[in-house]
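Changelog-linked ticket: K7E example.
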Amino acid sequence: MRSFIKTLLLFSAAISIVWLQGCKPKGTQSAVSGDAAAKVYVAPGKYDEFYSFTSGGFSGQMSVYGIPSGRLLRVIPVFSVDPEKGYGYSEETKPMLNTSHGFVPWDDLHHIALSETDGIQDGRWVFGNGNNTPRIARIDLRTFRTAEIIEIPNSGGNHSSPFITENSEYVVAGTRFSIPMDNSNGDVPINTYKSNFKGTVSFISVDKTTGNMNIAFQILMPGVNFDLARAGKGKSHGWMFFSCYNSERANTLLEVNASQKDKDFIVAVNWKKAEEYLKAGKGKKQSVKYAHNTYNEKKHSATSVIETEVTVLDSKELADMVYLMPCPKSPHGCDTDPTGEYIVGSGKLAAMIPVFSFTKMLQAIANKTFEGEYEGIPVLKYDAVLHGEVKKPGLGPLHTEFDDKGFAYTSFFVSSEIVKWNVKTLEVVDRVPTYYSIGHLSVPGGPTKKPWGKYVIAYNKITKDRYLPTGPELAQSAQLYSIEGDKMKLLLDFPTIGEPHYAEAIPAELIMKNSQKIYKIEENQNPFAALGDKYARVERQGNEVHVYMTSIRSHFTPDNIEGVKMGDIVYFHVTNLEQDWDVPHGFAVKGANNAELLIMPGETQTLAWKPERIGIFPFYCTDFCSALHQEMQGYIRVSPAGSNVAISFGTGKTDSTAIAAK
Ligand code: K7E
Ligand code: CUA
């Protein structure tokens, strides 16, 4: 029996060896070294070393993980409604999701950009892009809430966004899909692409003090597909580099038609030059429509304004502002190293990585070492701008991040691995498999002038056999590797929410010291706030019933409401009177076609409810807030239309029959 088991074990070991060698990626085996567990163990009650802000892809949200533990700390709703927090459901937050197309409760968030000062993360804001209905969001890192969303006109598919400059002067937005400009007649045959479809890259300014965004200018570009971008830094500060594909300008079956040419481009934009042109009045005003939504923390509510103008600079007409560097095989990632000297292009279909030199680029521009023009823009000679190629690194390079020791880490989707190479010598020094099919990767501080190093995190597209099966869809996944030694070491797998594209990690102390605990009740300027129980009331205005309600452990004031009639709309304006950290109250009413509210201490939020039947409707607090949370409840009575039940309300009022009996 024992020898049978032994044979079986040997046999299965042999099979797994064959399987390991036979397939790529290499099975579930992963060499996790003995001390991996200790390296990611954050003892109960201890904090993680880094916050990692991770995009949720088609979840439209951003999630926050502790690194190295991989613990999920928060999901921040950005472009998608979130019933857990009432975001996009409360009257106060609905305007955040307004666009020129109306209310859009979803988007596809790919990229994260943390604000920077002097090229170093400063922990003030994090930005995210909305891919589908072009938008950029700014999240305030004191509250971890979406503070502002700006829509991008003249754009279709805001993918190369929201990459940030080294003093957060701008976040950018390059259009993935070229389209007819918003102010033109868009009703054109699709096969007139080459004449009617244009590209744009937008520079959205960020106010130094408030963070408020504005579209400073757009640059009109040839109708290619802009994919990713990175700002110059240090010596290349003042430049922004965008990758693009489809220089063939195909409008159908791009899979084939956009892979005809051997090279597409890295688009180098001199934004300081663009600023000069803008100042000199070289921009053209264009009438467009885009929403600009801001959340006011004092009023606890968002407003949406439709803006109607942008200024456009034409890359064809304005010299010395845009240059093209040929880049092999449909480049995806476009990453600049911490010194700002090297620009790494990653051709999705290439088997090498070209690294461009900023110094050489400037020389080539000065010497006019052009190989020609593309749509009126000078194309620099590949050899003249190339620092060198990383030879045979792997298959399908996508994205590159940098550490603090002069190394680059490139993700390879097709060969499913991370490859470490020396930025100066271009020599490959290490590689590790990822499970499986990595997209982006992230080194803390990796896109900045000051990488913190220590870890690289892989964000994978496929998990197959890594986790317990959960039906047809499996958890998306991240993998944490140590990069402290010469060799990368796998430490941890952890599932993520939505599809993680990019993520950016930052030392915890840069954020936690500013984290807000409550909203001060005396600063609450929500016009519907009830700043104390004595202000609680119910008012009828036509068919609107406004309930000015307060919540405090463990009751609502009022908690008995009568006089609502069929045909009314009831607005519950709930003010949380608590002034204690981590004591939100929730609010939900039976039958409401809506989510709950989750109201932070000192905040007012409003739930609109249109009763669709007569009767008694309980409401209650949804967040376990005290030992008597379960008592935190009330009733609202709905009478027939035309009934003569008067508005009445109260908390703690005595039973009417009991009064009558006395
Ligand atoms: Cu490579 Cu949208 Cu940045 Cu995903 S993108 S991987
Ligand atoms: Cu308030 Cu539970």
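Closing comment: Example verified and attached. Residues 1-28, 658-662 have pLDDT under 50 and may be disordered. The pocket of dinuclear copper ion (ligand 2) is lined by residues 551, 585, 621, 623-625, 629, 632 (CB under 6 Å).
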